[in-house]
Amino acid sequence: MTLVIDEDKCARCGECEPECPNEAIFQTEDAYVIDPELCNECVRFGDPQCITVCPNDGIHKAKESLLKKCMSLFG
Prior knowledge:
Distance between the termini: 15 Å
Largest sheet: 2 strands, antiparallel
Structural class: alpha+beta
């Protein structure tokens, strides 16, 4: 599974991007997004680092339907 950023909760503060050890988070013109091909939920850290630093609780695990949508965009 991968993580996604909830655009409604994201304040675009940028705290998550530098915390990602896989460089899976990047900024587009309107939002921050997580590349599902690069995200491994920080398995070696125990907790996803982006979730730990997000001040708005805007990052969560993707539901299966969202994962399919992400894969269609990136894959």
